[in-house]
Structure formats: C-alpha cells, structure tokens
Amino acid sequence: MAVSGRAAAQKEPDPNWEYCGVKLTIHNIIIPVERLSPTPSQLDNMDPEMEINLRIVGCELIQDSGVLLKLPQVAMATAQVLYQRFFYSKSFVRHFYEHYAMACVFLAAKLEECPRRIRDIINVFHHMRQVREKKTPTPVMLDQSYTNLKNQIIKAERRVLKELGFCVHAKHPHKLVICYLQALGQESNAKFVQTAWNYMNDSLRTDLFVRYLPEAIACACIYLASCKLGIPLPRHPAWWELFTVDEESVREIALCLVRLYARPKANIAELEAELAKLRKSQVEAKEREIELKKVQNTNTADNTSDHSSVTLSPNALTAPKNPPVTSKGSSSNIVGDSNASVPDMTQSLPPNSILASALATAKAVAASITASKTGNASNAKVETEVNANSGPYSADTMEPDISSRDRLGGRARRASRPLDTREGSK
Q1: Average pLDDT over all residues of the chain
Q2: Closest CA to 163 of 108, 82, 105
Q3: Residues 357 and 345: beta-carbon distance below 8 Å
Q4: What are the DSSP calls for 319-366, one per residue?
Q5: 174-262: same fold as 35-163?
Q6: Which long-range contacts (CB under 8 A, 24 or more apart) does 331-336 make?
Q7: How far is the C-alpha of 188 from the C-alpha of 185, rounded, in Å?
Q8: Which residue intervals are annotated with compositional bias (Polar residues) in the record (predicted)?
Q9: 56-93 core/surface letters (b: 16 or more CB in 10 A; e: else)
Q10: Where in the chain are the domains?
Q11: Matching CATH number, 174-262, of 3.40.190.80, 3.20.20.370, 1.10.472.10, 1.10.10.350
C-alpha cells in the first residue's frame, strides 16, 4: 500500500510547474519586421531589386520543376516557402540560388509524403537550364561533377534545416480560399474560384507567406479576384472582418501582387553574371582582410620582441667602477681585468637594479675575454689561483688530478708560463 501511495503521489501534476520547452505555432514562421531590412544579401552589397528578382526566379524554378516532377501543388508551395525563409537568414551572394532551389524541392517532397530521387531533381533542373540557354538537351553525365553537385544539394538541404531550426511546417491558404468562398456563397462560380486560386499560386513567388498570416493572404486573393471579375462582395460591414482580417493587410497584400505583375521578366544570365561579380569582390575583400590581419600580427610580434630584448652598445661594455671581488674558491668568480669587477650576486638587490646587475655581469665577461687574448701575466696568475681551488679538474686538460704532488707541481708550472696555452705554446 505504501508503494502504491508513493507512485500515486509521483503521478500527481504540480500546479506550480510550467513547461518552458519549444512552442511551435503558425506564428513562428512570420518573420519580424526588424529582420526584413536589411537582409543578409543587402549586407553583402546586393541591390534590393536584384534580390527580389532572385527570389522570383528561384520560386519559378521550383514551380516549373514541380510540374515536371509531377509533384502536388502543396509540395511546390512548401518548397517555395522554405526557399523564401532560408534567404532571410542567408545571403544570395554566399549561397547559389539554384542549388538551394533544388534542395528545397528535395526536402519539401519528403515533407509532403511524395519523395523524389535527387537524381531526378538534378536531371529536371539540368534540362530546364539547357532549354533556357537554348541548347540541345543532353543527359547528365554520371561523372565527378555530378557527384559533386549531388553532395552540394545534400549539404544545402542540411543547411536549410539548420537555419530554419527544423521548423519546416507551413500552413497554406489554398484550402482557406475554398472555405471562404463557400462562406460568401460563391463556391459555385468556377471562374471566381479558379481566379482566386491563381492569385494564390502567384503569391508564392513573393515573400508574402513569411510576412502575413494565411488568412490575410486568402482574403487578399479573393479581393483581387472579385475586383477583376466585377463580382460585388459585402462592404458594410466588410466581408474580411468575418475572418478576423484587417483592411490594411488586405490592401498591402493586393498591392504587392499588382507590383509583381508589373515587374519586367528578369534575365537569369544577367543575374548570374552580377552574382559572380559580387562573389568575386567578396572573396577579394576577404583576402585583403586576411592580409591586413597578418600584417597587424607581425607588427604586434615585432613590438613585443623589441620591448622584451635588451641591446648592449659597444660603449656600454666598459669596466665598471666598483672594487674588484677578491673572494677565492667561489665558483661564481669570473676572471677579468684588474680594473674590472663583478657585483656580488649573493647580496640582496633592489627590484630596479636587476637589469643593472645583468649588464654588469655581461661587461665583466667581455672584459675577461679581452684580457685572455692579450695574455696578461697577472690575469694568468689570478686564474691559476682560482683553478687551484675550483675542484678536482685541471684548467688545461679538464681531467681529474690523481695526487696532490702532481696538483702542486702542475700549479707551479702553470704559474710560470703564459695563459694562452690553447694557441699552440708548449
């Protein structure tokens, strides 16, 4: 009984607990106003009109390829929405539009349960390019370029999923058009229904689906169809208020569609040439930036080495004015001139005199080398005394002495001959 009571207590929900996970709604795909301008493509110095043309061209390629692949309209609509959403996160300059159009078709076909092989998608886009360029249609060769293109499309699909946060759901307003026309009593007018449906398909070429809700787009398409066919609809109150849509949104969407029809058809070859120029200028700017960083790093390294190194001038290598060190038997004594001396390193030095002590040591070493070359006898005598008390190794042979008699005799002999025995004197 105790165990069952504990299990029941664990199953009871906490009234103060609130889930803070991921919330996915249709409002998630609506892009905020602050992200609409400037877009990533405009930040890469692309003209806004050129960006609009690339969006229209990409959506037209998706629509035409969907017809050749025999995809349902919902799959083509999903692909165009994914295409529009992706290029609000990435730039047309950095990502080739045709590859991502193919990737969106490939992904949308799987999302709408009508998958197509990636080889078929490549063949269709290859055929459309040949027709567009007025070339004789030829099949795609299964060579290394085909393999590279296939890998690029797969990577593009993954990048689309990553940038969209795997939130790829889309609510299309096509069904809403039929429902709204039924509510208005116009479902029997086939021409009215078909005209509104055509406006709906054309709106996919624009970015309306990532800026407005599907209800507003459906009302705008019905409004345009009624204006074109001259079919009156209720105005007092306005019929779109029945579907919780404001008049401002309807007019803005209708104006966007009218502007779409007024635009001249873009030349894809010219667009791709402009894209190549922008991409080349971007690569050159990146190379200049890398070179500038290298120069800055080199200058920083040179400045650091200049501050950390100590340079000694020839005038500084002179004998110090301190009294000579006379301690014997110390391994730290350095042979030098009679006027040269080495500061006592066993004494405590103030922090500011550490560098001065190092300079004095260097001066003493230089003076010692000068004295060894001149063959001064007094220096030889001092060195003999130091070597006699420095340990069991002889200064001449660097071999251990065996007996104290040989060590004394050797010391007497070395005292009677010059210091520079290494230059050949015997």
Answers
A1: 78
A2: 82
A3: yes
A4: --SSPPP---S-TT-----TT-----TTS---GGGHHHHHHHHHHHHH
A5: yes
A6: 331/390, 333/386, 334/361, 334/364, 334/365, 334/368, 335/368, 335/371, 335/372, 335/379, 335/382, 335/383, 335/386, 336/364, 336/367, 336/368, 336/371, 336/379
A7: 8
A8: 295-316, 324-347, 374-392
A9: bbbbbbbbbbbeebebebbbbbbbbbbbbbbbbbbbbb
A10: 35-163, 174-262, 315-423
A11: 1.10.472.10
Query: Which helix (H) or strand (E) covers residue 65, if one does?
Result: helix 48-68
Which residues lie across from 235 on neighbouring strands?
238
Q: What number of CA atoms fall less than 13 Å from residue 139's CA on the CB side?
A: 5
Alpha carbon 139 to its chain's center: 37
- In the chain, the amino acid numbered 349 is L
Runs of H (alpha helix) within 133-189: 144-163, 174-183
Which residues in 261-281 are b (16+ Cβ under 10 Å) and which e?
eeeeebebeebeebbeebbee
Per the CB < 8 A criterion, the answer to whether 368 and 338 are in contact is: no
Render pLDDT for 97-112 as a digit per residue (tens, 0 to 9). 999 999 999 999 999 9
Position 98 scores a pLDDT of: 96
Burial of residue 326, with CB atoms counted within 10 A of its CB: 0-12 exposed, 13-18 middle, 19 or more buried: exposed
The closest of 329, 341, 389, 398 to 365, measured between CA atoms, is: 341
3-class DSSP assignment, residue 289: helix
Contacts with 24 (C-beta within 8 Å, 6 or more apart), sequence order? 167, 169
d(CA 127, CA 57): 16
CB atoms within 10 A of CB 393: 12
DSSP three-state, residue 235? strand
Omega prior to 351 cis, within 30 of 0: no
Tell me if 228 sits within 8 A of 199, measured CB to CB.
no
Cis check for the bond before 314: say yes or no (omega within 30 of 0). Answer: no
Contacts of residues 394-399 at CB distance under 8 Å and 24 or more positions apart, as own/partner, are: 396/421
pLDDT tier at 361 (50, 70, 90 boundaries)?
A: confident
Reading the block at residue 168, the tokens are 């790829």
Helices 97-111 & 48-68 angle (0-180, nearest 10):
50
Q: How many residues does the chain have?
A: 426
Architecture of domain 35-163: Orthogonal Bundle (1.10)
